[in-house]
Automatic annotation (TrEMBL):
Keywords: Apoplast, Copper, Glycoprotein, Lignin degradation, Metal-binding, Oxidoreductase, Repeat, Secreted, Signal. This is Laccase. The lineage of its organism: Eukaryota, Viridiplantae, Streptophyta, Embryophyta, Tracheophyta. Binds 4 Cu cations per monomer. One of its GO terms (cellular component) is apoplast. One of its GO terms (biological process) is lignin catabolic process. Residues 307-326 are annotated as: Disordered. Transmembrane segments: none annotated. Residues 312-322 have a biased composition (Pro residues). Its cofactor is Cu cation. One of its GO terms (molecular function) is copper ion binding. It comes from Salvia splendens. Residues 35-148, 161-307, 415-549 form the Plastocyanin-like domain. PROSITE patterns: MULTICOPPER_OXIDASE1 (PS00079), MULTICOPPER_OXIDASE2 (PS00080).
Length: 566
């Protein structure tokens, strides 16, 4: 083809791309039908929302840097949105998904074609619903392979096994949600945890469906764990085996060995399992880590089975591995502190050294007065939660749409960079007058390409608890963490600015602090929130708006034609 012809063709394609008519020559399309599916677990039946009738939902396999289109058709009776957890969506917040933040819901009977653009993500991420509590059953894995097949910075695994941890209520999850929002107390605790949709051997009516992972002796397996649990950090342990942790949140890690993993809701952990033990059966056990309130303290199991000749039958109930105690804060924090980015030539580590924007965000449980004297929260009040003492009020048109069109009155731009009042955040009993938050729909603007530091400070208002904080649109470096009140004179001395882990969800330890840094190079509207679903429901979220840069390649793209408007 002549150069002019090629150029004309290129311009044509660029125009079509821009208008959203087509996305690229060879884009892969996926169909996501959101449907209501009858499901039976723990000796009882109910109807759940699923994608394509599957629970967990379909796994999306992509190659690093690929762009795909997922056509979401809502055939259920409830609104839905789909979020691509950990996918940065450069300059394109339109497909990000959080309801009333970047879009209005996909209403029953309507469709939305979501363009998903992968950039430097590698390894394991996931997708999930981002409206009400529907993410309990509407979620699935996203697996991003290296460009050259098998080009891993670790021994090539014989096979890859996604493990999705879930949480199950016998009741309808939307009823669980409306009930606790109404009575002001905590949500009803769940009835089981799940591994790939199965509760395992220790719950009623579940044994025969226990997930079996069959391995060959001497082979190496890449296990990709996603914590899709709603309300608790989880411990996972495999009997008789140590594992080698190699990745988290769509990025590689310096490999380290451990006999358990700790993983917070929203997070992913990739590890290698070498099947080099005696050929018999072993349990994989998964249980909660939680220090606050009541929670589901049960254990879910899967079986690791070595393929053996029929003449050597192995016992079907091997010993259960001992998980860390459910209140073992150090077991969670110590594991997380072992995560360090793997140094690779083609994946430079760029930690901002002198952040231009320094933010200090307190994360608090709160109480609000009860409107009718029947509330089940502390002292008869209602639970709430906040960032910098602000409980987020959901708007009824999306912040992205309001920002893009310049609609006034939807949000305010004055989200505070520090809490309104400094106090001893982690003292044993915080005075009750500090328990009550303010509320509002506020965002914080970030200049394009500014370098941002956020110190998250957990507080002991009402009760201290770990908060897995998740940022949309970015990965961030976790440069430090500790217990107690953050000391801005001494604590920065302990920062790791050399090889900190690159993550999108980080558990801020109970009555402690965590510092993250990132470069605001992705213009758009991006949600920051706690990934414990009850805290999100109680308002622990805020929004960043990263402004456009000067050149067109540093500015937000326009919305697609079928964008669900409000
Ligand atoms: Cu995994 Cu805002 O979510
Ligand atoms: Cu939280």
């Amino acid at each position: 083809m002549g150069t002019t012809k090629a150029m004309i063709l290129q311009i044509l394609v660029a125009l079509l791309l821009h208008s959203g008519v087509i996305y690229s020559y060879a884009t892969t399309y996926y169909n996501f039908e959101v449907v209501e599916t009858p499901y039976s677990r723990l000796c009882s039946n109910k109807t759940i929302m699923t994608v394509n009738g599957q629970f967990p939902g379909p796994t999306i396999y992509v190659t690093e840097g690929e762009t795909i289109v997922v056509v979401v058709a809502n055939k259920a009776r409830q609104n839905i949105t789909i979020h691509w957890h950990g996918v940065k969506q450069p300059r394109y917040p339109w497909s990000d998904g959080p309801e009333y933040i970047t879009q209005c819901p996909i209403r029953p009977g309507t469709n939305f074609s979501q363009k998903i653009e992968f950039s430097d993500e590698i390894g394991t991420l996931w997708w999930h619903a981002h409206s009400d509590w529907s993410r309990a059953t509407v979620h699935g894995a996203v697996i991003i392979h290296p460009k050259k097949k098998d080009n891993y910075p670790f021994p090539v695994p014989h096979a890859e096994i996604p493990i999705i941890l879930g949480e199950w209520w016998k009741n309808d999850v939307q009823e669980v949600l409306s009930e606790f929002l109404e009575n002001g107390g905590e949500p009803n605790i769940s009835d089981a945890f799940l591994i790939n949709g199965q509760p395992g051997d220790l719950y009623p009516c579940s044994r025969k469906d226990t997930l079996k992972i069959t391995v060959d002796h001497g082979k190496r397996y890449l296990i990709r764990v996603i914590n899709a649990v709603m309300n608790t950090i989880m411990f996972l342990k495999i009997g008789g085996h140590n594992v080698t942790v190699v990745g988290t949140d769509g990025a590689y890690l310096k490999p380290f060995t451990s006999d358990y993993i700790a993983i917070s809701p929203g997070q992913t952990i990739d590890f290698l399992l070498l099947a080099n033990q005696k050929s018999q059966n072993y349990y994989m056990a998964v249980g909660p880590y939680s220090v606050a309130g009541t929670f589901d303290n049960t254990t879910t199991t899967a079986l690791l089975e070595y393929r053996t000749t029929p003449s050597t039958p192995s016992p079907s109930s091997p010993p259960l591995p001992t998980l860390p105690e459910s209140n073992n804060t150090l077991a969670s924090a110590d594991f997380t502190r072992k995560l360090k980015t793997l140094t690779l030539e083609n994946r430079p580590i760029n930690v901002p050294l002198n952040p231009s924007t320094k933010l200090f965000f307190t994360l608090s449980m709160n109480t609000l007065p009860c409107p009718n004297s029947t509330c089940l929260g502390p002292f008869g009040d209602r639970f709430s939660s906040s960032i910098n003492n602000l409980t987020f009020d959901q708007p009824n048109i999306s912040i992205l749409e309001a920002y893009y069109k310049g609609i006034n009155g939807v949000y305010r731009g004055d989200f505070p960079g520090r809490p309104p009042l400094a106090f001893n955040y982690t003292e044993a009993s915080v005075p009750r007058e500090l328990w009550v938050p303010a509320n509002g729909t506020k965002v914080r603007y970030l200049d394009y390409n500014s370098t941002v530091e956020i110190v998250f400070q957990g507080t002991n208002t009402v009760t201290g608890v770990d908060h897995p904080m998740h940022l949309h649109g970015y990965s961030f470096y976790v440069v430090g963490s500790g217990f107690g009140d953050f000391d801005e004179k001494t604590d920065p001395g302990s920062y790791n600015l050399v090889d900190p882990p690159l993550m999108n969800t980080i558990a801020v330890p109970v009555n402690g602090w965590t510092t993250i840094r990132f470069r605001a190079d992705n213009p758009g509207v991006w949600l920051l929130h706690c990934h414990l679903e009850r805290h999100l429901s109680w308002g622990m979220m805020m929004v960043f708006i990263t402004k456009n840069g000067k050149s067109p390649s540093t500015q937000m793209d326009p919305p697609p034609p079928d964008f669900p408007r409000c």
